Amino acid sequence: MTDDRTKAPFVAGDARDPREIARRISLLEKSLGRRSLMGAMAGAGLVGAGLRTAPAAARAARQDAPALPDDAAPLEEQVYVLPADTTLDKTPDFYEAVYERVSDAAFDIFSDPLVRLNRDFEIIPGAALEWSGNEEGTVWTFQIDPNLMWNDGTPVTANDWVATFRYGADPEHAWDFTWFFQGVLKGWDEAIAGEIPLEELGVRAEGDHTLVLETVVPAPYLPAMLLYSNPLSAKQLEEVGPLYNSNPETSVSAGPFMLEEWQADQRIVYVANPDYTGTLEVPVQRVVIKLAAPNTWFTMYQNDEIDYMQKPAPAEIQIAQAEFPEQIYSSVGDFRTYYLFFDVTQAPFDDVKVRQAFSHAVDRDAIKTQILGPSGVPAYSWLAPGFPASNSEGLKEIQGFDPERAKQLLAEAGFEGGAGFPALTLQVRNPIPLEQNVSQAVAAGIAETLGIQIEVQNQDQDTFMDALTAKPTEIPFGFVSYGMDFLDPFNMLSVWLSGGRHSWVSEEFDTLVRDAASFTGDPEQRATMFQDAERVLVEDVPAVFIYHETPVQLVKPWVRGAVLEPDANGITSVHWPGYSAMSTVPAELYIGADAPAGRGDA
Amino acid sequence: MARYILGRLLGLVFVLLAVSAVTFFLTRLVPGDPFAAGERGLPEATQAARAAKYGFDQPVWRQYLSYLGSVVRGDFGVPFQAPTTTVVELIKDTWPVTIRIGLLTIAISYPLGILLGFVAAVRRNSFLDYFLTFGSTLGLVLPNFVVAIWLILLFAVRLDWLPTGGWGKPEHYVLPVLAYSLAPTALVARYTRTSLVDTLGADHVRTARAKGLSNTRVLTWHVGRNALIPFVTVMLPEIPNILTGSIFIEQAFRIPGLGRFFVTSTFTRDYPMILALVLLVAVVWGVTYLLTDLLYTLLDPRIRL
Amino acid sequence: MAATAEARRADPAAAPTLAGAERRAGNTRRALRRFFQQRLAVAGLVVTALLILVGLFAPQVAPTPPEATILMDANRFPDRQYPLGTDAIGHDYLSRVIFGLRTSLVVGFAAVGVACLIGIPLGLAAGLRGGWVDFVTLRLVEVMTAFPGILFAMFLVAIVGGGVRNIVIVIGATSWVMLCRLTRGQLLTLREQEFVQAARSTGVPEARIAVAHLLPNALPPLIVAITLAIPTAIFTEAGLSFLGLGINEPTPSLGKMVADSAQYIRVYWHLGLFPTLAIALLMLGFTFVGDGLRDALDPRQN
Q1: Which residues pair with A261 in a beta bridge?
Q2: Which of A216-220, A354-358, B161-165, C156-160 has the lowest mean pLDDT?
């Protein structure tokens, strides 16, 4: 192997050139920021006004085979093979365990959520054909598609959602995502603490096909949140228990796929649900998920044992660039931002000058060219380009790279040339190779610029998160990331609310974020309010923003369909959240006739 | 003899108790929650609810006693990482896979190692001996995660003869067993050589030779038998290691075996699984040692129990 | 008597030491001579000594300090400027290998030191005092053996955290069992031998017998075991590193470098090759020295 492999060149204008991606992302920011805000703001528009309605779609059970394009493999060979991490196969259901469910490959697919995302990141109808909010934005009514059926013959009714939300709030379940509806759904906070019976939760069915959700604050973002609303079957929940979907014998589906095989730590197989009556027309007939440690995925991919993978290691990307560059795609992922954070309540990081010094000591451009490549873009603020209300350009200078300024600020804080500065340990959360390289380079850069000592220590996920979220926090200096849960600035910015993930407290920020979140007026004005909040965050430097992730995907040439055509913003990739009923991806992907046989075998 | 074995088994019960107690208290000392705290941590209410759900709000000694109570009834609990099964079921499903690979590894590496060691001992200090000694030491020093990667790159990616991993077909055995065999082969070869060299120089062998016994007879009977003792000492204890698997190999080749759980259970703080694994290993070791000591009495009449 | 079986099990290669105290003086010289007659052992000694020297004088030998990086020079293959290339964040890899060797040696020696500090006194006490001391020690040994080492080590690292000092303690605390067994087994075998019986019958106090007669005779197999335990400790650190539980950056260690290189070796072959080579040399060196010592110290070779 020779040197030139290290710098695999991009052809000018190549869709996968990092600069090209950056350009497209900035385009995305412009259009998406506006449109998606409108999407998220649908509620605001809806207050007293119109309704969102599903396009007329196939309603009858899919008796006849879907029409496949000419270059598609025959129906029985429409097999899509994906890898998933072995540690994530406890359950397929979001409302059972968010962080331990199958979530890498194909997931949340045994029922349709109320709303889903299309390829342009717009919220579109899923199981809910239309929805509306009341004047204040505190009572939300969803009309459920009356045609939906569980494949055990039971109709899907509003009661399934009621049962699902109650299960999520049940203290005996102690769900890992209870924070999500805290301060949003009426009665939620009291229910998870066991203070009120689950029946008093602000989620109720009015008849079979009308679901009503009440919120404690005006919540124009509620429809966007309800991306996460794949219902469980109330009947199975009652009769079999919450884990009914991990066993093909008790699994029940109202979604495009149903469970055929569940072999813990080995493989999971879904087959098309012949009784599906929802709106996704899915060409793939069989999804095989191979459970494997992520560091084995690349050789599997090279050996044609899987069709798709995400986040190859840096060296693996280089092999791909040399051997099959046309199979590399940069996605925007979940608009994830990686950052250094400080415990601002403790010395030396209680001094904003110290934090500012750190923020000016990170050469993001060098990290971009030498480490990130197509996997990320430099970050100087919290909201990634393209995310609603993102203001990357406007905030760029505040934490910009300026080693002289950094040294001067540290001197002003009383640590001239790093003298007297305590030795630091940077805690890093369970890093994949890319994150490991970035965290080490960042630490080395700061240490060298400021003349201080920084050790880098990796922690496993659970230890790290427990220490981080402990009150008071046990991590004075760390490297971590956050990716969006739903497409509203409130979601990303709420991470920094007082008493949340970090020890930073700013009343100004809290007020700005909460006011903006509940604001039901002009979307542009709402975005400006969020941008004011973000500026407070960036200027007070509780965090040094390092990069926005643009996860690399490898996709075999026989994976085809609209998913791999540029979206309205010119971005080409399998969009977040991926092969899931939360997204239109399953309807937009088919397997070409050139796919080698036997990929779905063990 | 029966009394001796009974005594040893009683000792084993003591060890199991001690090991389970130490493990139990260690797991509670280790920072980190067995269940994901999520990206933002759990609300206090949920944290309390979870502690109550799994009994973590009880004093540790009471948790331990109730655990012991269940174990005596044969109930090892439900693994946190696989809530749809039980610890017993999970081990029942995965251990045979590891044992099958392990037995194949032993079947290949031990005879091969003995052969190589024998050759090296007989041709002592020859070029061949040096070559084998060097090779076997190298076999011991290459980390098996490195070996696994090389094997996959060569046989699966470059030559495309075999799948990169997986489970269920005969070809899935080839690479893991190969990767796995390297170290035991090297170890067996080294010890065979050493103990043969020792015995070859021993008085009674010289006597046997002096008596004019044929070389083969001397080698197989006098030398072989005496060399077996150190061999038993070193190689038998390797067997529990081989039979309980390796995270490195199982992860690299995607084998649904038991070995991974030693690491994944620790990472995920899967208390029930950790305890079961520790007890399992303790039993396997206890039995192996008992067998080793019994074998001594057969091999060397001077050793009494 | 289970004790004899125990003693046997403790160390296969350590032959029953027949040498009497009065024969010891000339033994050392003979042993040295025998050691230097073995070509592999001498080669091992030379390699080991060289590596130790490089480790000792790492700051003088290495071109840069181990934590120095030039990010813009990351991912370079070996060339004139960087004889062993650079890694993913721009460390000079030659310096990393040299300092990694130093760390690995420190871990190896210190961890085995810790293991000796725990294992040998326990073994001595058990072997000399017998009775309940022996009983308790044996049970402790059994419990430790039954504990899966990697699990125990992971627990300890999770509790006490990473870093060189902690890794040394963790590896030491999980590897003393073998030394304890060996010491105890040696004492049990020696105790029954004629020269000790003789000393005892002439009224020499038990403690003096232990120091003057037992320990020196028990030493040779211990030295061998210690020599062979050092590479094992270095290896254990590599395994922990592979699981992400090793020594913290920016301190390099050979084990960590080998482990980290796993994801690169298909492109940046140099990242895997050089530390693997260094570890292999180190292990070969120690192993050959250990083997040589065993052969040299075996009195039957007289």
Answers
A1: A269
A2: C156-160
> What distance in Å separates the CA atoms of residue A587 and residue C47, rounded to the nearest whole number?
64
Q: Which of B86, B254, B266 to mutate to test the interface with A (most CBs of A within 10 A)?
A: B254
- The topology under which CATH files domain C62-285 is MetI-like fold (1.10.3720)
Question: CA-to-CA distance for A168 and A171, rounded, in angstroms?
Answer: 8
Chain A residues with CB under 8 Å of a chain C CB are: 1-3, 5-6, 295, 313-316, 318-319, 363, 366-367, 370-371, 425, 430-431, 433, 436-437, 440-441, 443-445, 447-448, 454-458, 460, 463
What CATH code is carried by the domain that includes residue B253? 1.10.3720.10
Distance CA(A97)–CA(A79), nearest Å, equals 27
- The amino acid sitting at C66 is P
How does DSSP assign B119-165, residue by residue? HHHHTTTSHHHHHHHHHHHHHHHS-HHHHHHHHIIIIIIIS--S-SS
Pick from B42, B153, B251: CB nearest A178: B42
Cα A34 to its chain centre, rounded Å, is 20
CB B175 within 8 A of CB B162: yes
Residue A348: is the preceding peptide bond cis (ω within 30°)?
yes
Q: How many domains does chain B have?
A: 1
Residues from chain A contacting residue B83 (CB–CB below 8 Å): 90-91, 243
Using pLDDT thresholds of 50, 70 and 90, give the confidence band for residue A237. very high
pLDDT per residue over B64-96, tens digit each? Answer: 999 999 988 888 988 888 888 889 988 998 899
Name residues whose C-beta falls within 8 Å of residue B32's C-beta, 6 or more positions apart in sequence: A460, A462, A463, A466, B269, C158
| Chain C residues closer than 8 Å to A401 by CB | none
CB contact under 8 A, A174 and B260: no
The amino acid that residue A67 corresponds to is A
Residue of B nearest to A480 (CA): B39
Tokens describing residue B203 = 């008085």
Instruction: List the single best residue of B131, B228, B266, B267 to mutate versus C (max C Cβ within 10 A).
Output: B266
- Residue B303, both tokens: 């050793």
What is the tens place of the pLDDT at every residue in C99-129? 999 999 999 999 999 999 998 888 888 887 7
A478, containing H or E segment? strand A477-482
Instruction: Note the pLDDT tens digit of each residue in A342-401.
Output: 999 998 999 999 999 999 999 999 999 999 999 999 999 999 998 999 999 999 999 999
Taking CA atoms, what residue in C is nearest to B26?
C155
pLDDT in tens, A533-568: 999 999 999 999 999 999 999 999 999 999 999 888
- Of the pLDDT bands very low, low, confident and very high (cuts 50, 70, 90), residue A199 is very high
Residue A262 gets which letter from DSSP? E
Q: C260: which chain B residues are within 8 Å (Cβ-Cβ)?
A: none
Place of tokens 């096909």: A209
Q: Classify residue B283: in a domain, yes or no.
A: no
Residue type, A406: A
- For B233, the domain range is 93-266
Banded pLDDT at C179 (limits 50, 70, 90): confident
- Ranking A14-23, A139-148, C62-71 by mean pLDDT, the lowest is A14-23
Q: Delimit the domains of chain C by residue range.
A: 62-285
C-alpha separations of A556 from A80, A113, A307 in Å: 11, 29, 5
What ipTM did this prediction achieve? 0.84
The share of chain A scoring above pLDDT 90, in percent, equals: 71
Q: What is the pTM of this model?
A: 0.87
The answer to whether C92 contacts chain B (CB < 8 Å) is no
Which stretch of A135-144, A272-281, C213-222 has the lowest confidence by average pLDDT?
Answer: C213-222
Chain B partners of A467 at a C-beta cutoff of 8 Å?
31
Q: Which of A260, A275, A244, A301 is nearest to A156 (CA)?
A: A275
The rounded Cα B151 to chain-centroid distance in angstroms is: 22
